[in-house]
Amino acid sequence: MCFDVLFWKEPPIRDKLRINNRIRVREVRLIDENGEQVGIITTRDALDMAHDRDLDLVEVAPNASPPVCRLMDYGKYRYEQTKKEREARKNQKQVELKEIRMQPRTDTHDLQVKVNNARRFLEEGHKVKFSVRFRGREITHPEIGRDMLEQIAEDLRDHGVLEQKPTLEGRAYSLIMAPSPSKTQPAKRSDKPAPPSSLGDIDFDAEDEDQQAG
């Protein structure tokens, strides 16, 4: 049986899945558009079936023997995948490194304000870098900056974890804190079975007696 190849929609080169006439093997294990096993048939018969139903033949498991293909509207599938990827990027939270600068002479009130700001940054999922900068002869007493940073880390231990311990960098002592893992909300588990993927749940171990004549 011959068919008009002009009707076939070929995927962009960047797509990893082979579809329609790009599938070169002699036979495939076919899954229909409803996720039902059709069995092992010749690739030509599978293409005819896809063409008759105005669908695409998509190779979903090229390493199986024989390769597993599925009938689907490939253009619609690609559109849905692109939409999901766009939404995922939109909802992805960007982690920033917030820097809070201090001096050895920073008074208690100002220091508490900075700690409160850092607590808010950590709760929002950002990292925080504290820097105690020394001027002039203040550098002769770097332990003052180290002690300040150690106290800050202690005050924030319920909201963050120490990613970089107090380190002297030039004329500044600094440390970095990251959000505490315990503040991360775990994904809710459900007793309901997971829905099949967009490519369907495929049984690669189906018996060969399902084979149909090519």
UniProtKB/TrEMBL annotation:
Function: IF-3 binds to the 30S ribosomal subunit and shifts the equilibrium between 70S ribosomes and their 50S and 30S subunits in favor of the free subunits, thus enhancing the availability of 30S subunits on which protein synthesis initiation begins.
Subcellular localization, as worded in the UniProt entry: Cytoplasm
UniProt KW keywords: Cytoplasm, Initiation factor, Protein biosynthesis
BP GO annotations: ribosome disassembly
NCBIfam families named in the record: infC
Subunit structure comment from the entry: Monomer.
MF-aspect GO terms: ribosome binding; translation initiation factor activity
Acidic residues composition bias: residue spans: 202-214
Organism: Herpetosiphon geysericola
Family affiliation: Belongs to the IF-3 family.
Region (Disordered): 172-214
InterPro entries assigned: T_IF-3_C_sf, T_IF-3_N_sf, Translation_initiation_fac3_CS, Translation_initiation_fac_3, Translation_initiation_fac_3_C, Translation_initiation_fac_3_N
Protein name: Translation initiation factor IF-3
Domain Translation initiation factor 3 C-terminal: 95-179
Pfam families assigned: IF3_C, IF3_N
Residue span, Translation initiation factor 3 N-terminal domain: 19-88
HAMAP family associated with the record: IF_3
Any single GO CC term annotated in Swiss-Prot or TrEMBL for this entry: membrane
